[in-house]
Amino acid sequence: MILLLWQKIRYISVGESDEVQLFYYFVKSESNAQVDPLILWMTGGPGCSSLTALAFEFGPLHFEKVDNTSSLPRLILNPNSWTQMASFIFLDTPVGTGFSYTNNPDARKSDTMLACNEAHEFFRKFLFDHPEFISNPVYVGGDSFSGLIVPIVAELIAEGIEKGIEPPIDLKGYILGNPVTIPTDNDYEVPYAHGVGLISNELYEVCTHLNCEGNYQDIDPRNVPCLDDMNTFNQASNDFYLLSNLEHGNFLEPLCTFYAPKPRNLISDGSLDEKFLELKRRQRFLASMCRSDGYKLAYSWTNNDIVREVLQVPKGSVGNWQRCNYFGVSLTTTVRDCVPYHANLSRKGYRSLIYSGDHDLIVPHIATQAWIKSLNYSIVDDWRQWLVEGQVAGYTRTYANRMTFATVKGGGHTAPEYRPTECKAMVKRWLSHDPL
C-alpha cells in the first residue's frame, strides 16, 4: 500500500499557460479499483492540505503517535480507511495549498470560481493520464470551507458531461462534511450553544427574541439594541468563559492552543520540535493528550528532504510546508451561497451525502439542516437513528432529491477524525446505496 501511494504522487499543470502546479496523492481502492468509485477530495481552509484528510481523517496511512521528536515520523496503516471501498485523489487546492505552487506571482491570486475551474481542469487531465478510470463512478468530496468548492466543481463536471467535453465522466454525486454553505451559517452558533447548554436561557432569549431576531452576523448598525445584546453575549463569553475557552472544532475536547498551538503559529518563530521541547514537563504531558498535537508530526515529515524527494516536490518550489496555509493562500471568496448549486445538482438527479459531526461549533449541524430544509424537498426516510456495532452512531434523514443528511454522534468539525469507525460505516453504506 505504501509503495503504491508513493508511485501515484505527482503534479498536474492547470490554468493559463499551465502556470499552476497542483499537487495530489492518489490511492487506488483496496477492494476492486476497476469498478469502485473514484473520489476527488478537497480539504477546506481555504489552504488546508489534503494530507489532513489522508493522514488524520480517513486515508490509508496515519502517523504513528510516539513521543519522539528526533526522528522521522513513521507511517502506519489505518484500519478505518475509506480507500477500502473507493479510490481517492487527495488534491492540494487552491495554489499555495500544501505542495501546490506557481512561479508566477500573478497566478498566486485566486478566487472561488478560478479555484473551482482549476480543480475541474485538473480532474479531466487526471483522467486523460489515467484512462483506466474513465468508466468508474465519480464523486466529488470535501469538508469545511470546501462546502463552497465541491458543489461548484460537481456542477462544472455536470456541465461538461452535458456539453460532451472529453473525457466522458460518470459523475454520480458528491459528499460533504460540516460544510460552509451560506453566509448565515454563523447565525446558528448562538442557538446551538444554547441547545447544548453553553449559554443560559436568559442570554439566549435576550439575543434571539427581543432584538436580533436570529441574525447575529450582518447586524444593521441602526439596530442599537441588537448590537448591545451581542456585546453582552461576547462579553459574557470572555468574562465567564462560555465559548471562548472551548475547542470550537469539538467542544468536548480539551482546548489545546496553549499547549499545542496551531502549527502555523509555531512555524513562524521557531521549529516545532524546539517549541515542543521548551514546554515544561507538565505542559508536555498535557500536550500529548491533545488531538492537534499529532499535526506536528506532519511538519517533521513533509519538511524532510528525503520525503520531498520521494514525493517529487521540486527543490525551491515550496518553502516550509504548512498544514493550513491561511496566510500564504490568496483566495477571494466570490461565491458565498452554494444552495443554488445544490438545488441545480438535485434537479439533475445527482446523489449527495451531507454529514455533520454534532459537536462542531464552527458549522453547527442545525445550520446545515436549515439550508437543506430551504431546498423544500419532501422527506422519504424521516429522522431516525443509524447504528454501528449495535450502538447509536448518529441520526439521519433522506430527501426526495436523493440527498442524505446524517449527524455523527460525538463527531467534531472533521467528523472522521473523531469517529473513524462510524464514518467508515456511514460512507461504505452510502456508496453501496444501502440505508445508513
Automatic annotation (TrEMBL):
<dbReference type="InterPro" id="IPR029058">
    <property type="entry name" value="AB_hydrolase_fold"/>
</dbReference>
<comment type="similarity">
    <text>Belongs to the peptidase S10 family.</text>
</comment>
<dbReference type="GO" id="GO:0016747">
    <property type="term" value="F:acyltransferase activity, transferring groups other than amino-acyl groups"/>
</dbReference>
<dbReference type="Pfam" id="PF00450">
    <property type="entry name" value="Peptidase_S10"/>
</dbReference>
<protein>
    <submittedName>
        <fullName>OLC1v1016886C1</fullName>
    </submittedName>
</protein>
<dbReference type="GO" id="GO:0006508">
    <property type="term" value="P:proteolysis"/>
</dbReference>
<dbReference type="GO" id="GO:0019748">
    <property type="term" value="P:secondary metabolic process"/>
</dbReference>
<dbReference type="GO" id="GO:0004185">
    <property type="term" value="F:serine-type carboxypeptidase activity"/>
</dbReference>
<dbReference type="InterPro" id="IPR001563">
    <property type="entry name" value="Peptidase_S10"/>
</dbReference>
